[in-house]
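hey can u run this one w/ flavin mononucleotide bound, need the structure tokens asap thx
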Amino acid sequence: MQIRNINLGDKPVLLAPMEDVTDQAFRLLCKEFGASMVYSEFVSADALIRNVNRSLEKIRVDDCERPVAIQIYGRDVASMVEAAKMVENEAKPDVLDINFGCPVKKVAGKGAGAGMLRTPQLMLDITREVVKAVHIPVTVKTRLGWDVPSLYEIPEEWKPIDKGTPFILELAMRLQDCGIEALTIHGRTRSQMYQGEADWTLIGEVKSHPRIHIPIIGNGDICTAEDAETAFNRYGVDAVMIGRATFGQPWLFKDVRSYLDTGKHDSTMTTDWKFAVLKQQVRTSIAYSLAEDCGAKGHGRSELGGIIHVRRHLANCPLFKGIPDFRQTRIRILQATTQDELFALLDEARERVVAISR
Ligand SMILES: Cc1cc2nc3c(=O)[nH]c(=O)nc-3n(C[C@H](O)[C@H](O)[C@H](O)COP(=O)(O)O)c2cc1C
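ok here u go:
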């Protein structure tokens, strides 16, 4: 798959943008394990323009993580255009992604993110002007629609060719006409938030439509290598994007890559190796927090900022599933405040994982 001249190879697997998760430290780790492209968390166009320090930190990219996309969100044309130019000039990412999918109230409720699904004409206006304003490729990430009843409701002024055309298909064609160079579809509506199962049927319908020529990236509930393979084989998407399943296991990319390329899982990743990766993740998170105030909000340049940022990942690590009475240890992980504390808890967890696998 290609986005302009960026070659992402065959069956690319992308790291999804996630607020407070996909900072540079985590992106680099996922990249190291084979993510084909990584995305920053979304950054507010308004905050960027106001030169809010934390937002400027969020758009910093390292050459080692390329190709990398920076994602922005906002609700009016002028601020989105200005923010897009800032991102292009200051961060120089490979791709600029626009978020039209965030469901949370503080964003969608104000008309930005998935809120744009209720004002699709404005969504197109923003997209068209952002595409015109920058030289790098612009991509969009969105959802299937606002809610289930609106999945087949097309705005009057769009005059769809066929009655019964899904909204997302009509939207995809129009976004393509605005000049975007790839479209990511999360197979849920805004109303679903993160509940229920992602519906990939409509994603497949967009991908297979003869008028669609831009790459379609499928997203939602990819948790294993087998899920990724099904997404490619059954729905024909050009790439898959993985979000939550990367929590506590950035090595997932290594396994998915191996499975897609060879048909076999990666058998080289031992339990000891995985725990060493988790410790590496802790160290890098602290290092980034100390260097750039990109740890947890409000903790400035501190070890604690990095710890708070990373401990949620660790607590969700799938390696701990099945350990009897692990709840208390998980709580202690979530409350740890130093690297030494976290490492001691990880050592304890490793022994227990080894014990149950004997
Ligand atoms: C903690 C969290 C933060 C997220 N932040 C963003 C974001 O900043 N931008 C975005 O486009 N999507 C964001 N998402 C949505 C994910 O990118 C993705 O679309 C969603 O989690 C579905 O994919 P998954 O099932 O693989 O997790 C976020 C999701 C989570 C769980």
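The mean pLDDT is 94. anyway lmk if its weird
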